[in-house]
């Protein structure tokens, strides 16, 4: 339903020959709706159309278009293509133009690097440091939670499991403002920590539930990632000296 409404808005914008910002806004909404519905090939085609539309425009419009294109590509497994577009967005936006977007782009880049295979921790840490330095000026509960969530993922990737757990405990002390996919990935991190802490059965059960939830929500790429992590956890558990259940 949402994607059909967005598609109609794009058709009307084109027919009326609206301005680039107005048409771009309609295309951005369409890309988001298609990606949410799991229609990644359609989302990629419209994201590329969006980038082409705003190619001669700078500032926030082009940065957001490149970010949309990067997000879709990453969900399709095109890490290199996603990185190129996101770094173009970062390099093309001055902090004076929109400091909040400047921060959000760096958080998005950090998330991309930490989700890469293998995780690119140096680049992830760099972008988190940049974003954290600016949050004192534009910090919101959501941005602060996104930063702390990514810091927990980084700590896990670096083997600092106690630090990752401490950040998770801190986040769960209040209301979570995170987007759906970020909340699911936070749950995955919690599950992996539970397994490492010796709570094998609970961690595996939680991973299975999260994988099924992602599948039912048409987040096929996220579901596949969770099932891969689950399979690796099961394989490790059956090795001599693997994690013990509790």
Write the layout of secondary structure elements.
Layout: H1 2-15, H2 20-36, H3 40-53, H4 59-75, H5 79-92, H6 99-115, H7 121-138, H8 141-157, H9 161-171, H10 180-196, H11 200-216, H12 220-237
Helix pairs in contact: 1-2, 2-3, 2-4, 3-4, 4-5, 4-6, 5-6, 6-7, 6-8, 7-8, 8-9, 8-10, 9-10, 10-11, 10-12, 11-12
What is the gist of this entry?
With 246 residues, this protein is mostly helical. It has helices at residues 2-15, 20-36, 40-53, 59-75, 79-92, 99-115, 121-138, 141-157, 161-171, 180-196, 200-216, 220-237.
Largest sheet entry: none
User: What is the helix/strand order?
Assistant: HHHHHHHHHHHH
Number of helical segments? 12
Backbone shape: globular
Cα(first) to Cα(last) distance is: 45 Å
The strand count comes to: 0
Q: Average pLDDT across residues? A: 93
Q: List low-pLDDT spans.
A: none
Counting helices, strands and paired strands, the structural category is mainly alpha
Question: What percent strand?
Answer: under 5%
Q: Approximately how much helix is present in the residues?
A: over 70%
* Rg calculated over all Cα atoms: 19 Å
Description:
The structure is a single chain. By secondary structure, this protein is mainly α. It is 78% helix and 0% strand. It has helices spanning 2-15, 20-36, 40-53, 59-75, 79-92, 99-115, 121-138, 141-157, 161-171, 180-196, 200-216, 220-237. Helix 2 (20-36) runs parallel beside helix 4, helix 4 (59-75) runs antiparallel to helix 5 (79-92) and helix 7 runs antiparallel to helix 8. It starts with a helix and ends in a 9-residue tail after the last helix.
């Amino acid at each position: 339903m949402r994607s059909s409404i967005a598609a109609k808005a794009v058709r009307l914008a084109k027919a009326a020959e609206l301005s680039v910002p107005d048409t771009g806004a309609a295309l951005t909404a369409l890309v988001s709706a298609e990606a949410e519905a799991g229609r990644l090939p359609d989302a990629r085609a419209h994201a590329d159309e969006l980038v082409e539309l705003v190619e001669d425009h700078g500032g926030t419009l082009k940065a957001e278009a490149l970010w949309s294109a990067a997000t879709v590509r990453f969900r399709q497994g095109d890490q290199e293509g996603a990185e190129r577009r996101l770094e173009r967005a970062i390099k093309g936006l001055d902090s004076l133009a929109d400091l909040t977007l400047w921060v959000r782009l760096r958080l998005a880049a950090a998330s991309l690097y930490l989700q890469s295979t293998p995780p690119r921790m140096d680049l992830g840490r760099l972008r988190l440091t940049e974003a954290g330095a600016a949050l004192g000026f534009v910090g919101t509960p959501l941005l602060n939670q996104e930063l702390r969530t990514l810091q927990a993922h980084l700590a896990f990737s670096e083997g600092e499991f106690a630090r990752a757990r401490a950040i998770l405990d801190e986040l769960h002390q209040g209301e979570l403002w995170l987007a759906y996919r970020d909340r699911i990935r936070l749950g995955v991190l919690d599950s992996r920590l539970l397994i490492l802490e010796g709570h094998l059965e609970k961690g595996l059960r939680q991973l299975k539930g999260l994988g099924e939830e992602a599948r039912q929500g048409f987040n096929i790429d996220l579901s596949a990632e969770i099932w891969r992590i689950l399979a690796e956890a099961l394989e490790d558990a059956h090795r001599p000296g693997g994690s013990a259940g509790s």
